[in-house]
Amino acid sequence: DGFHESSLRRAGVKSPCQPPAGSARFLTRNLLGCGAEMTSLTHDQPKLRARLAPLPLRRLQLLGCEGIIVAYFLSLFRYKIWFVTTAAVLALTVIAALLGTVRVRGLLRDLWPIGLLFVYLIAASFQSEFSRVALYWSAVDSIGMVVAALFWIAMRNNSSADIRMMFIRLVLISAVVAFGAYRVLPTMSRIGGLSLMFYPLALPFLWTEIIGGRHRRFALFALGVMLAILFLSRSRAPLGAALLVLGLSFLWIGRTLMQRVKLGLLLTIMVTLIAVILMSIPTTRYIVQMFVSRTIDQDVMWGDVYVPAEPRDGARESLEQLVKERFLDAQPFGIGYGTTSEHYLRIYRFPLALHNMYHAWAFEGGVFGAFIFLAITIRHYRALRKVQQIARTMEEELMARSLLIGTVGVFFIGMFHQMHQGPVLYMLFGLGLGLKRRVWSDG
User: Fold this and answer.
1) How many other CB atoms are there within 10 angstroms of residue 43's CB atom?
2) Exposure winner among 43, 145, 246, 406, fewest CB in 10 A?
3) Which pLDDT score is estimated for 27?
4) 306 φ, ψ to 5°?
5) Closest Cα partner for 207 from 181, 156, 171?
6) Which of the listed ranges 51-65, 143-157, 290-304 does the model predict with the highest average pLDDT?
7) Is 219 in contact with 210 (CB distance < 8 Å)?
């Protein structure tokens, strides 16, 4: 699968399910080449046809899923452009499924709770004071179910190496988008735009590729690009999430002392080089100073350049106060999905949407919406833990680890941004459940 097992052994990662030497299972695997899988292919003709089908449509479906995230990056210029891309990829995937190129068995069984969440939000919208707004946003954002399904199919039908390369390409593409966005909109608040929400999920996969993949140099270069954009972004939540994910990857992937020392030195050299480059260019130096000023909430003086501290965001504070005051009154069905801006408009004379994913589920969706989302999260976590228990190879086990670590990063950003209205959250759920289905069905 394009992964170096020896590199993983040096990193201290053990195979989770290697059968005892001399056992019948051991002989089957080593003499027949995973004989259990061969038997299932021999006697299951639909599965055989799916595996031997021409690859272009299957690969095209994966590239289409990649295109959804690229379109999400570009939504900085054209809002919700990724909706159109998702519809196109859905049409392509339906064709591929009808031709037997991709396997979709088990899709509804795995993803029905996400569909239940949006059915509930649509039903609850009728009791909202702003029922039309709630119904509109519940129906529009239900495209998250489609995104989860598409990435479930992508994970189910492609190798782990292909998925990691997808993340590497997306990080590099995001750098091009970030540069173009800065050239077009030099006054925008965050360099990197919406790609910042994607980085914490991508980082563990880059780390895994650096540990033992065949494209270590590309992954290392992508990691450097990601860190540079995060430092230039002036956005604290994505940088904090990325550093948290980086620390977890460092602790959980690559456990030997020598491995830690090597990667620690490599990261130190990389961060130092990035800092030197950014501080050597006047434009980027000023941006970094703005980020430091925003982070420490103080004025910054470097040479003859003065950067004042960023003023407090009174609108955000008043939004938090609104949620606190009306939270109990909104239960049990919530005020209506996506209607917080209408309530804010009534009080403060201008609209402001929620910037907290958990407020969206618990305040706008009520206690039942929060409960359904919690059930989806628990199901996602149990699926990945199950993969760690039944994984046939080190690579599958590390894919589960990467997704678990990425989950921490995505949920961290969810405290500060509306992750529920973008594809990254549903991409995460689709990849996790798709990995479990792939390992469970093929093992």
Assistant:
1) 9
2) 43
3) 30
4) -115, 130
5) 171
6) 143-157
7) yes
- The encoded tokens of residue 250 equal 């460092």
Distance CA 400, CA 385 (A): 7
pTM exceeds 0.85 for this model: no
C-alpha 265/C-alpha 273 separation (Å) is 12
At 324, which amino acid appears?
A: K
User: In sequence order, what are the beta bridge partners of 213?
Assistant: 3
Q: Enter the tokens of residue 351.
A: 């609209």
Please report, for residues 107, 179, 242, 284, 422, the alpha-carbon distance to residue 182 in angstroms, rounded to integers and kept in the order given.
40, 5, 21, 12, 21
pLDDT given at position 424: 92
Rounded CA gap, 205 and 167, in Å? 7
Radius of gyration of the chain (CA): 23
CA distances from 411 to 140, 192, 195 (A): 22, 19, 16
- C-alpha span between 150 and 153 (Å, rounded): 5
- pLDDT at position 404: 93
CA-nearest of 289, 190, 197 to 238 is: 197
Name all contacts of 256-262 with Cβ < 8 Å and 24+ positions apart: 256/10, 256/11, 256/12, 258/10, 259/10, 259/11, 259/12, 259/211
